[in-house]
Amino acid sequence: MTNPALLSVGEATRCLRAGHVIAYPTEAVYGLGCDPTNEAAVRRVLHLKNRPEAAGLILIADQFERFEPFVGPLAAGLLDRALASWPGPVTWLFPRGAGVPDWLAGSHPSIALRVTAHPVCRALCGSFGGAIVSTSANPSSAEPARTAGRVAEYFGDALCGIVEGALGSREQCSEIRDLVSGRVIRSG
Known about the structure:
By secondary structure, this protein is of the alpha/beta class. Helices cover 26% and strands 22% of the residues. The chain has one domain (6-186): DHBP synthase (Alpha-Beta Complex). It contains six helices and ten strands. The chain is globular and about 50 Å long. The N and C termini lie far apart (34 Å).
């Protein structure tokens, strides 16, 4: 297994558009990402992680508007609840849009979304022009990667590359909350 290339944001964007999987630094750990509308790429992420399709995946973006194709109808005031915490380390479970496939959202009636504050993630989403999949860069039973070297150990040349940049200062992955109830699903 060879080490994946270190990528600029522009090179990573080309990888995403070509249907490849990349790794990139996030607020706390490295993430695996791909184009959430590319079924083959999403399935590749699930395979690399040994993650069941039913679990679903998180999407990140640099602005809420990038999520609109994935979100179902919202009751008045709910969007304001999420926007008040963004950009930042809170992932919200939004009502899932009618066209969102199970291979992306899993067996859930919701889809997990986060407007990230991490500068590399924001630049990547801005350059790509859309939301991207964001799941910790590790096989299901292993510790999340906190270094590019660990990402390479886990996935090697199965990735198009690793985006250059530093991790954020958070020790824990993002908090996950249900948008409708406000209930905390996973503390951050």
